[in-house]
Amino acid sequence: MMKLPLFLLLISLVTQTSLSEVTISVTPTTLQKSGDIVTISWSNVDSPSKLDWLGLYSPPDSPHDHFIGYKFLSSSPSWKSGSGSISLPITNLRSNYSFRIFHWTESEINPKLHDHDHNPLPGTAHLLAESDVVVFEPGHGPEQIHLAYTDVEDEMRVMFVVGDGEERSVKWGERDGEWSRVSVARVVRYEREDMCDAPANGSIGWRDPGWIHDGVMKDLKKGVRYYYQVGSDSKGWSTTQSFVSRNGDSDETIAFLFGDMGTSTPYATFIRTQDESIATMKWILRDIEAIGDKHAFISHIGDISYARGYSWVWDHFFTQVEPVASKVPYHVCIGNHEYDWPLQPWKPDWAYAVYGTDGGGECGVPYSLKFNMPGNSSESTGTRAPATRNLYYSFDTGAVHFVYISTETNFVSGSSQYNFIKQDLESVNRSKTPFVVVQGHRPMYTSSNENRDAPMRNKMLEHLEPLFTKNNVTLALWGHVHRYERFCPVNNFICGSTWKGFPVHAVIGMAGQDWQPIWEPRADHPNDPIFPQPAMSMYRGGEFGYTKLVATKEKLTLAYVGNHDGQIHDMVEILASGEVLSGDDSFGVDGGARTGVVDSTFSWYVKGASVLVLGVFVGYILGYASFSMKKNGNRPSWTPVKSEET
């Protein structure tokens, strides 16, 4: 009578052994700072599918479909055996993490659920395992440190993020560890209810942004390297950072300028992220280290993080730029992906197709509070959200007067912004700053003639170009188009022989975003570009990169650096006398550049020092570059037209 139940019991035990539960483990479970790496290991996945996936969750109790990001288990070489591991750098979101493994097959793909690139989002019906919680250890100080100018020349602003609203300070001095001054930082934050639309105000896109602290270091000597830390005795201090203060007595200007960079994540998420942003930061850090104790700053002209309502992407962005932004001021202007939403206050009839939903419902709130630029420009959102700030402002550094404008808010005649631009340009002291550089997001001139923005360009030509030409703007820099293009000195589509009355325009939106392969030949006309290169376009290229500006009172040089090799691929030299020099005519139209280029002194000492200083980036990049190339799908490829960069 007992043999049958015993036999069944043995069969049951054998079955349980062969169908063991999936196991998942994470090491380590305690982290110190953003960029620390965790390894997630699993075993006993029965009949693994190439679509089985690992989800990242923060907070750990988030619903299954509220992941931060995901990786396919097939990115592990041993995945077919049912076991494997994935290592990832983790960004501190001021809440704990957990990891979950799901089984997913092609037959379960829901075409109605897809990401920004129309890839299907992974299914959550079959949870296989969930990890222990991973925590960030307290006491290691603030993160996301970034500098900026104030309206006072002998000051430097520093901003950072922590997980609570308790008092934090900045302490600084001329020697590391010898802090001669301390200043308490003010603190701000924003709430989910401040967001204007989805996904920013939805349960998937929203994560707690932490508390944003803003301190000012005052009474700085001119052109001196200062060391600083941010934090508190009770909560911990950051590692020591340093910067070189502004020097109003110096004629030299050094700046690194670009638009549309974004950030990279080591996993796939709901939106496209920008892997090329890592290379942009790497080469700029090389250049900053190469110039030693010279003062410089960064200019990022719109489309900053491309978070588009997924708040943790901002955390990735500031973590990625911190190695640079903690050393030199990081200046910005607003782009469509920080601001645009359906009910934005200024949307004239002609702009119906221009301003859409590109901001992901953020309506400028994270941009306005995470940065604090000079000036006091602001526009009401018309909602409970705080006013949009950092719209237009200006400052002098060395021989150049820099002006930042907003193409997303009212700029036409009679507006507050128009009046600011007019008054600012008319009051420039050209004996002190002979060169004037204006920067905004959407371009006034581009050969990428996207139809949607045509009304915008017409209004800029009507209202802003006369101000630029009348007041002898030297250089106008724009983003939005994700390519580099430099024009002749131009006024009303006519090339001039001098920049006086004919500003040089350049599009520099090539720092990371790759969404816009618009110079490819058409399939049925492989030899004809969609938008032919006009005569006034002196150079245009498809390579990612950034620009370097170096100026004295005699000459301003703008150079385009390619991310693929860190070398200069285009250059223009603008003399205070009015001449615009680009070398000889050795490059033909079909070569991308219409004129040759000549290396500047700056390019030579950067080249000479680059080999020695590239190593400074390795420690940080190990956490991000090694894992940035996601195996969840290839980025679209393209071949540039009329360019050397193939």
Automatic annotation (TrEMBL):
Residues 258-484 form the Calcineurin-like phosphoesterase domain. GO terms for cellular component: extracellular region. Pfam families: Metallophos (PF00149), Metallophos_C (PF14008), Pur_ac_phosph_N (PF16656). Its cofactor is Zn(2+); Fe cation. It is found in: Secreted. SUPFAM superfamilies: Metallo-dependent phosphatases (SSF56300), Purple acid phosphatase, N-terminal domain (SSF49363). It comes from the Eukaryota. Residues 142-244 form the Purple acid phosphatase N-terminal domain. The keyword Glycoprotein applies. The keyword 4Fe-4S does not apply. Homodimer. This is Purple acid phosphatase.
